[in-house]
Write a structure and sequence with these properties.
1 helix, 6-stranded antiparallel sheet, 4-stranded mixed sheet, mainly beta
Length: 157
């Protein structure tokens, strides 16, 4: 039987995606054209303005296009300066989710991601994204040949 103790955290994560970014002004970066949510959510899920998907893969984006890291806020700032955030995905097709990412506005090491093996081959998939530096990042989730890509601004306050 799968450990479902993480479920209580979903409302907290959803609230932090909306509330924390709405309260923090984000520096405008004309060179970082962040992806706007398209409101697409997995079948049977409640509507979500931050939903982003393509009919096969879905995730939830920060409302203003920026993931903000600050003391006391969501996520973790590591001693090496890397920035870690839990990130929800949903797979509408069977297969292992792989996540890659690269910084678009400057050279940086690649994004690191952890994807748990304990959630089956389809449906909800919690992950952790580790951005080596702040900046403009392109993130791609992939299952088989199906990809979902978004761009987000990563900010450290």
């Amino acid at each position: 039987m799968r450990n479902m103790s993480w479920l209580w955290r979903l409302p907290l994560l959803a609230a932090s995606l909306v509330a924390s970014t709405a309260e923090v002004p984000v520096p405008k970066n004309a060179s970082c054209l962040v992806t706007a949510p398209n409101g697409d959510v997995p079948p049977g899920s409640p509507s979500a303005p931050n939903g982003y998907g393509n009919g096969q893969l879905w995730t939830w984006l920060w409302s203003n296009g920026a993931v903000v890291f600050e003391s006391g806020g969501p996520g973790e700032i590591h001693p090496d300066g890397s920035l870690e955030m839990k990130w929800p995905w949903h797979r509408g097709l069977s297969g292992r989710l792989q996540i890659t990412g690269k910084r678009l506005d400057q050279r940086a090491p690649s994004l690191r991601a952890t994807v748990s093996d304990s959630y089956g081959d389809i449906g909800f998939q919690p992950t952790t994204l580790i951005f080596p530096t702040p900046g403009c990042w392109e993130v791609t989730g992939q299952v088989g040949a199906t990809q979902l890509t978004f761009v987000t601004q990563v900010v450290r306050k």
